[in-house]
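Section 5.1 Outputs to date
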Amino acid sequence: AQIKSVMPGVVKELRVEAGQHVKGSDPLLILEAMKMENEIRAPHEGVVETVHVEPGQPVEKGALLVTLAAPEA
C-alpha cells in the first residue's frame, strides 16, 4: 500500500524504518500542517518497504510518504 499525504505539511518525525513490521493503526510518522501535528498511521498490518521522506522535508498533498508491503505469511 502506498501511504500518501492527505494535506501539505512538513514531516516532523519518522516513527518507522524500512523492514520494520507494523500493525494496523501503528504510527508511521508525524506530519505538521497548519501548526497541528498529525499522526499518520498504518492502514493495515504489513512491513515497511520504503520510507520516501525524511524529517524536516516539506510535502505536498498526495505526496508519497511510505510504501507498505503485505505481511509475509
